[in-house]
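LOG
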Amino acid sequence: MTKIGLLRCEKNAEACPLTNCFKSIIVGDQAFTECAPVELVGVFTLPKERERVFALAKILKAKGAEAIYIVTCAFAHKSKEGWKLGQGFEEGRDELYAELATGVGLPVIKGSAHLPAGYTPQRFEP
């Protein structure tokens, strides 16, 4: 069983209760197929301050997380045709995710539920 932490978007925190992310974790699909079965150790909302992102990820690691997942709405958006890359709530943070993986010592995976067609979750290694 893989223990994971989930980082969600601050801009979408009051609109999305993570229902489909939780469903995907439970059934082991979408971004969680390779690590199923999954145990969720915690969820935090991505803050604006970079330092806080590292602090929150370290808390998830202390709670047993073996990987950190970034929710899909951070980098993709819903359209009439389904989920598409771009226009997400946390665009342009790949450098942060790479630094986070190295700084915390855990893989950071960009994607959760609602993966856009043809998208393979991007993995940032420590």
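LOG (cont.) second protein
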Amino acid sequence: MQKQTNKCYSSTEIIKKYIVSMDAIILEILKDLVKCRSLTPNDDGAIDYISGFLGSLGFLCQKFQFGETTNLYAKFGTSQKNLCFAGHVDVVPPLDGWKSDPFELTEKDGKLFGRGVNDMKGPLASCLSAIHCFLSEKEPDFSISVLLTSDEEIMAEDGMASAVQHLKGSQEHITACVLCESCSPKESGEYIKNGCRGSLNVNLTSKGTQCHVVNTAKYGNHIHGFIETLSKLTSLKLDNGNKNFAPSNLEITSIDIGNDVRNIVPVQASAKMNIRFNTEWTFEKLEQFITDQLSSNIDVSFERFGYPFIGASEKFIKFLKTSIEKTIGKIPEIGTLGGNSDAVSIREITDVVEIGAPVANAHITNEFIEIKDLEKLKAIYHGLIRDFEVL
């Protein structure tokens, strides 16, 4: 491996004697990545670390910076047939309540704790270990690539969106992509996320007349009407879903009046909502539908954040199901549950799915991943590389 100088690098050591049998490469990579305080969009040396690791395996590594975001595209081989693994190294802030240092990998009862171990430094470590293992066995007649960014947690334009445009400009071909994202409702690797619902943010502002509470008979209380409107919106059934997507749903995420005085009706109140919607809607149709539900004193603005999409072709899904069943003895479930990810950008250039750890453990205080999940994911990723030759 290339000489390392960043503070997040460390030597290999085993955390507890009883996990000495765990894949040492996964453990080493994960320990070093967790030490990187890669609070989005800062990678804190994690991209350099992975570039060094892949470079030592013979990958050609290209690092490109957009704004504050560092991106990496590394490729082994020159074949047009190219299996890509993608992901991100950035994490959300740990905040308070941790029982251990969130930037030091800690083991307890078969679980590894640390910020990002689930989303997604753990699955990424399993992927890198799988690549290392495969290349130590044979040299493939196809290319293997790794595409990484450091701003996925804020879904900024300087990360995967810009990286994809960069690859488009360089005419780089990717046959198919596996995003090592935490997405499984239950067991690691037993769920293939094939696309995602769209996301629309809705900002509402109700305006009325400021008055003393004893004068509402004359001036009215617009807040009461605003509450009725919010209640009506949450009770609406947007659709029944379809064969690929769950029903669309609307959630209120904030209500703010900003009034500490008990005897005054304020002039303004606001609320924020998010709608996760399927292919029964377009942004335009959904925005008009919401607007039609509002009275004239309520202003609305929208923020579009990801459209609904199916990520991969039936051919690639069939390949994935066959390979994973061969590896773990179970046919994975196919679905589109969960939030947006970098898949929305990657879909512009190739088939893409998400395969990773249980999503329930992402972003939580005392974030963890089970050791068995890391080894299971490594086996799945290794199997996909092994079987890609026949795709």
